[in-house]
Specification:
This protein has eleven helices and 35 strands.
């Protein structure tokens, strides 16, 4: 009888422990996209990322975290053991194949409950291989120095002590002419060569509360044969060229870049006032950039075309600019009329015209955006009818998730509330925002590709840390959007900085290229005075810049726009 009572008591306690988590009504954040991989005998760690200001106020609200094995629903112990729950992390110091599965962390506050699932995958190592079954990819460029970073930062920040040993294949790496160790987690490769491909493994031995364990990660670098030197401009040669009035005139900018692989150099024409138009219907414009590969590099050519020379074209300096990460190389020519005496006779006549032109250009530069927006409002019939291009959305919005919480609010609040409040409700644009407009259970890859193709513009919202902490979804959206914009030329891009940024070293080349070509719109300046309410008037300076870059189509004026007309 006593034995039966003991069994009943144990069952009641266990049932209560498992039922506490199952019966709670917690806000469910689903399953983390990133999986954690390990092999039998090595350590693995799952992190509960619910401790975030985007979930609750972490500074003033007390909380506790419990871990559960989703397979059995049982709560995992908080003390030493296998697995071992500590702070926000669940540690497996000696993983086994049986440890593979889904684990759920539940975060409780006095008034709320949140849960998030994480997946642990335990795969045995491949026979005859010293690397791990799941390798990460990092990039090395031939003929340049390179760095491989050990992807074990989660461990380094939370253990008591650790050491790292690097291997190439099965052989340990030692410092010398080829390799050097930078800090505790980086491997420096001097003068990368094609034969530096292969698998590199960083094996970490660490001490956690007196327990010694180890883990490892394998990197398979993508070695790219890419290098180039500073461009050389062969034509023009800082010369003066004479031509007659009303003549057709062309001049070629010829640039040679010595190198191999992809050569990222941009060549274009400009005057002292502005870049030359790329619109072929303009009287003065530049033709598209042409490239010709040769054995030791690449020739690039851009032609400036004057359909018919006018008085204002003469006595100006036309500069060819070759831009790359090696710097800017320029060369120019000055265009003068064939009959110098004719210019002398017209000096007084054109003095007033020049003054008028300069004044007009200055006024246009100051009020350019206002003028264009008002033309769209007063003459809507001259623009393309909405939907005639087959697109559904005016813009596809890419924004960082759960990463920024400045004075103006989180990036998600700006993307999901502020942006639609102005562009959709007040200006009639149609936006696609992933997470708001995507269907539940819809495949991420297909959804992103399909809806970007249905959009006319890509609005990229970012902070200082966006491109150093890219999630897989955000990285994929950014890559697909930039490829469609820069490679296929089927999409315009609008860059919006949500906070002040001083270091762009981790930004993708594609984003930096767009930033250099067309600039960015800075939301953080709107909130520099730390106002409690966001600026939501379409006639404010920030929203005018956004609307100016949005697709042009036949539409009515934004609400509040009439007030903006009175303030011009």
């Amino acid at each position: 009888m006593r034995q039966k009572l003991l069994i009943l008591l144990v069952y009641t306690v266990c049932h209560h422990a498992t039922g506490a988590a199952v019966g709670e009504h917690c806000k469910d954040y689903g399953t983390q996209f990133e999986r954690t991989f390990t092999v039998p005998g090595e350590a693995a760690v799952l992190n509960c990322s619910l401790v975030s200001p985007d979930v609750f106020d972490t500074h003033t609200t007390p909380y506790n975290i419990s871990w559960y094995d989703q397979r059995s629903g049982t709560e995992l112990p908080g003390g030493a053991g296998q697995p071992w729950a500590r702070d926000t992390m669940l540690w497996f110091l000696n993983s086994t194949l049986e440890d593979a599965g889904t684990y759920e962390c539940i975060l409780r506050t006095p008034s709320s409950c949140f849960k998030l699932a994480s997946v642990l995958i335990v795969d045995p190592p491949k026979t005859g291989s010293c690397g791990r079954p799941h390798a990460s990819i990092q990039q090395l460029i031939v003929n340049a120095n390179g760095v491989l970073v050990c992807p074990l930062l989660t461990y380094m920040d939370h253990v008591d002590d650790f050491s790292i040993q690097w291997y190439k294949g099965c052989e340990p790496i030692h410092e010398g002419d080829k390799f050097a160790f930078v800090g505790k987690e980086k491997l420096f490769l001097k003068h990368v060569a094609v034969n530096d491909t292969g698998s590199y493994t960083c094996r970490m031995t660490f001490d956690l509360n007196g327990t010694i364990a180890y883990t490892a990660e394998t990197i398979e670098p993508n070695v790219i044969e890419q290098w180039y030197q500073q461009p050389i401009v062969y034509e023009p040669v800082n010369e003066t060229i004479k031509a007659g009035y009303e003549e057709h005139f062309n001049k070629t900018c010829r640039v040679f870049v010595q190198g191999k692989g992809k050569i990222d150099v941009d060549v274009f024409w400009a005057t002292a006032v502005e870049d030359i138009s790329i619109n072929p219907s303009d009287r003065v414009h530049q033709a598209p950039l042409s490239k010709r590969n040769v054995e030791n590099g690449e020739w690039l050519e851009v032609i400036i075309i004057f359909m018919k020379l006018k008085e204002e074209d003469f006595n100006q300096t036309y500069t060819c600019m070759a831009y790359s990460n090696k710097g800017i190389v320029i060369s120019h020519f000055v265009l003068q009329p064939a009959d110098e005496s004719f210019i002398f006779l017209l000096v007084l006549l054109f003095a007033g015209l020049v003054l008028t032109f300069v004044t007009s250009v200055a006024a246009y530069k100051i009020f350019k955006i206002d003028i264009i927006l008002h033309c769209r409002s007063f003459f809507p019939y001259i623009y393309t009818r909405a939907g005639s291009d087959g697109k559904i959305y005016d813009a596809y919005v890419v924004y960082p998730r759960m990463c920024w919480h400045g004075s103006g609010g989180s990036a998600e609040i700006f993307a999901l509330h502020t942006l639609p409040e102005v562009l959709e409700k007040k200006c009639g644009y149609k936006l696609f925002i992933f997470g708001r407009d995507s269907l539940p259970g819809e495949a991420v890859v297909e959804s992103v590709q399909e809806n970007i193709c249905k959009s006319r513009t890509l609005i990229l919202l970012y902070t200082a840390s966006t491109f150093s902490n890219l999630t897989s979804n955000l990285h994929f959206e950014q890559e697909v959007g930039m490829h469609r914009a820069l490679v296929e030329g089927m999409l315009k891009v609008i860059l919006v900085e949500l906070e002040e940024i001083t270091d762009y070293s981790r930004f993708p080349t594609s984003v930096l290229h767009v930033k250099r070509k067309q600039g960015v719109i800075q939301w953080w300046k709107v909130n520099s005075k730390r106002t409690s309410h966001p600026q939501l008037s379409p006639s404010s300076k920030f929203w005018k810049q956004v609307r100016y870059r949005m697709p042009v189509k036949s539409k009515t004026t934004c609400s509040s726009e009439k007030n903006g007309l009175l303030n011009l």
